[in-house]
Every structure is written in structure tokens, then in C-alpha cells.
Amino acid sequence: MRAAAVQLNSADRYDRNLEVAERLVREAAADGADLVVLPEKWTVLGPPEAIRASAEPLNGPALDAAARWARELEIHLVAGSVPEIVPGQEKLANTSVLFGPAGERLAVYRKIHMFDVEVGDVSYRESEIEQAGDQIELADVDGAKVGLTICYDLRFPELYRILAVRGARVITVPSAFTERTGRDHWEVLNRARAIENQVFIVAAGQIGDAPPHYRSYGRSMIVDPWGVVLAQAPDEECFVAADLDFSSQDEIRDRLPSLRNRRPEAYAWPDPAPAGAV
Asked: Which of 20, 64, 149, 227 is most exposed, with minimal Cβ within 10 Å?
């Protein structure tokens, strides 16, 4: 399998973002990619009012376009994430959709971990307009299971371990990692998740500035199960691609069988800490 990660500087420019995304998806497919991954919030990255204004249901124009690109190019396409209008739900969802080569939806993943953090002097409160999902998703892509995650999920190894135990050989990470945290954590976390779960990681990121205070790190990358960075993007809108060697993955898992050596019967989760505990 050949995989590609598309890197964008989306900002609040819906039509322009779709045009650039389509161009890079087509270029990645022309380069031989079977699986292409777009970044988080690839349709619009901006303030809450822009996110709300660009939100759409699963059959909205951006996801319909992504389905069409997958069908025309006969590829599997992870449509990064988009703000989704969910029927019967007041808040939006941050949703990643995997399309198959017939344009069919193979998996719909709603981001589980909300980015409610302080980074330097900037506060991020994703949960103010988006609701956390609660379902772990993976799907078959040409005989290999692919797990779906989004950005901040990268800091929660439990999710990645469950995907690996459920058979994931590839995990996608569409992201808009902040420049401040990305400098120190982006590569480390992607490589750690790849090594500990012996999976390929395809991490597609945003790059550059977006209103009101976003500055995304970029450096989209593809990592192999040994933690080797197979491809990494420069600081521009582009795509990077790499071949995923599943026979090499099998050899790693056979020689260093950490997934088989797990002892789940010995792992007891601690009781939740009381409110206010440090």
C-alpha cells in the first residue's frame, strides 16, 4: 500500500480550501497513493463562528466532493475532519470520514478527546461548540485494517492500543497541531504511537497561520512500525507519500511480539481520582 498525507493551510477560506485539497489529492493519487489522508478541519480552520458557518451533515458539499474524488481516482480517502451537523445533537462533532474507491463511506469517526487546553497565553476550548464522540472506528482497506483518530487523540495511548488490539495495521491522524506544542511533541508522539502498537502512522497536518490565533506546526509525516519516519513534509502546502511494507510489519511483530506479550488480566485500571485530587 502507498499512503499519502496532505498538508494544508486552510484558514477561513472554504472554497479555496476545497480547490487546494482536490489538487493535492489528485497529485497524490497520480503519485500512486492508494490511501490519502487530509488534515483536521481541512474545509475551514478559524474562529467558532467560522466553524459553525462551515458545518455540514455527512452528505454536505465538502464530504460529497471527497467521496467523488475517491470514486474518480479509485482510492481510499480519509477526509481529514470537518465540523459535522449531527441530527438531534445541539453541538457539532469533529468528524473524520473514510471513503472507499467507489465513493462509499467505510467509517465515520467523531473525535473522542476535546482540545480544552492552555497553550502559552492562548486558551483552546473545543468543547464549547463541539461534542466529544464515544465510538472507536476502524475499517478494512484492501485487506488491511485502518484505524481513525484526530489530532489531540494522539496524547491518549489507550485509544491507539485498542485500535491495534482490534487489528489496525495503519492509524490515521489528521491534525491541526499547534506550533508551540508541535515543536517538542509532534514527532515524538507519532513515533511513540507507531512503536508501541507496531503500526504505520499517517499523520496529515495543518501548516501556518489561521484566525483568530492558530499557528499550526505542519511537518506531516508517515511513520513505520519501528518508529522510522518514512516521509516528512516541508513547511508548505504539499503532500508526502511512502510505501507501507506490511511484510516488514509482520516481521517486526514476530520478532518483537509486544502485542502478543500483553497481559490484560494483570492490568487493573485505578479508581477515578476524587474531584480536586492532584
From this structure: 64
Confirm whether 41 is a catalytic residue. Answer: no
Sign of CA dihedral 231, 190, 127, 110: positive
Q: Which residues contact 47 (CB under 8 A, 6 or more apart)?
A: 12, 211, 212
- d(CA 95, CA 228) in angstroms, rounded, equals 28
Q: What is the DSSP letter of 39?
A: P
Catalytic residue among 84, 111, 130, 237: 111
Q: Of 84, 126, 137, 151, which is the active-site residue?
A: 151
Active site residue 137: no
**DSSP code, position 259:** T
Dump pLDDT digits (tens) for 57-104: 999 999 999 999 999 999 999 999 999 999 999 999 999 999 999 999
Whether residue 276 has pLDDT greater than 70: no
d(CA 94, CA 73): 26
Active site residue 151: yes
N- to C-terminal Cα separation, the chain:
45
Decide: residue 269, CB within 10 A, 0-12 exposed, 13-18 middle, 19+ buried: exposed
Q: The C-alpha cell of 58 is what?
A: 455527512
Q: What is the DSSP letter of 203?
A: E
* SS3 sequence of 40-67: CCCCCCCCHHHHHHHCECCCCHHHHHHH
Residues 56, 60, 61, 65, Cα dihedral to 10°: 120
pLDDT digits (tens, 9 = 90+) for 197-206: 999 999 999 9
Contact 176, 128 (CB under 8 A): no
